[in-house]
Amino acid sequence: MLKLTGFVQADGRFALGDDAGLVTNQFLLRRVRPIFQGTVARYCDFYVVPDFGNATALVQDAYLDVHFTNKLRVRAGKLKSPFGIERLQSGQSLLFIERSLANNIVPNRDVGVQVHGELAQGVFGYQLALLDGVTDGGNIDGDTNDAKDLAGRVFVQPWRTKGTSPLRGLGFGISGTTGTANGALRGYSSVSQASVFSYATTVTASGTRRRWSPQALLIVGPFGVLAEYVAGRHEVQKVETGKPTTTARLDNSAWNVTGSWLVTGEDATYGNVKPKNFFVPSARKWGALQLVARVNQLRVDDAAFSGGYAETTRSVRRATAWGAGLNWIWNQNLKYVLDYEQTRFKGGAAGGADRPTEKSVQTRLQLSF
Question: Which CATH superfamily is 2-368 part of?
Fold first, then answer.
């Protein structure tokens, strides 16, 4: 059995008062993802997702998932690392156009094998994976060294089966990764996808890499709240010609709290919202309207600057953002999104001055099929 679905996101990204030209105002195809999925021999699901967005072509996901019971499944291939609650949310179900600053520290997609499942009718979910190991925010197709990462996540929804409980939509969990990393390090970006932190060119990962993240989700009728805290520890080294090699252990962190309200009364969800009334102007039906808001922050270890491990003239020490948006969901296939997000920075400009506040306006027309 083969099933073809997918989605296309046509975005607009603009910065207000960007006199320094730090953000490129543009229209772009953010994601163009046909999704091929199906089942072979009853017990083996497959899922393949190429992506042609951002003027590039790559494979986002490609895995097999063998299952005899929902309590125990084995997944192998390229997949999302089982870590961040916002990162694990589908790109077509996001509350904001871009994920929060916290996702700079979250591993994206990796290659390996994962054991996962749900117990007690979904009250307890778990994921445990052995992966090649990816840098913060990274997306890889293979490894460059023998070291591997161990990643795990548990998520509990204690009242999920209590149909009358106001807490049936409450879930909380914790995730973590551990491994050894060597090689290039990835920088961090703002919600406008502008670079706001870069490691010095002489700096590479060299040693232990660990992350952990407590996270929670609450859904009560039309209201929803998603929250997570992410902390990452990296051992790095700086190698400069004619100078002794130096090492450091850097602790970076971030957090995100996002809330939503479906004004038209639909139930909030971690996935896609289904409007009560599809968009039919002639019948005075206008689809679903969802208001969203969030606050989020990224902090970089001060030792990255005092030790010369950061590209100091253009790297921020801290970024703090707040945003608000409107999601107009016409039906299960079409959605229009408008976001505004403002980010204040500490550092990031020449002479130790603060990078100018980023004021981002983003739009999206999304087609799902």
Answer: Porin (2.40.160.10)
- Between CA 85 and CA 121 the distance in angstroms is 20
What would the two tokens of residue 367 be? 């087609």
Give helix then strand counts, H and E, for the chain: 1, 18
Coil vs helix vs strand at 54: coil
Closest to 106 in 3D by CA, of 83, 75, 74? 83
* Token pair in block for residue 339: 């976001």
Tokens of 32: 């163009």
Given CA atoms 154, 155, 159, 162 in this order, what sign does their dihedral have? negative
* Cβ 292 vs Cβ 256: under 8 Å: no
Q: How far is CA 37 from CA 5, 44, 65, 202, in A?
A: 8, 11, 11, 43
The predicted-structure confidence for 91-147, as pLDDT tens digits, reads as follows 999 999 999 999 999 999 999 999 999 999 999 999 999 999 999 999 999 998 899
Please report where in the chains the tokens 């960007």 appear, as a residue: 18
Note whether 219 and 166 are within 8 A (CB).
Answer: no
Q: Which residues pair with 252 in a beta bridge?
A: 232
Q: Do 96 and 224 contact (CB within 8 A), yes or no?
A: no
**pTM for the model:** 0.96
- The residues spanned by each domain of the chain are 2-368
Burial class (CB in 10 A: 0-12, 13-18, 19+), 287: buried
Exposure string over 3-40, b if 16+ CB within 10 A, otherwise e: eeebbbbbbbbbbeebeeebbeeeeeebbbbebebeee
Q: What residues does 27 pair with on adjacent strands?
A: 12
Cα 219 to Cα 167: distance, rounded to the nearest angstrom: 8
Q: What is the pLDDT of residue 351?
A: 87
Contact predicate 136/105, CB 8 Å: yes
CA 67 to chain centre: 26
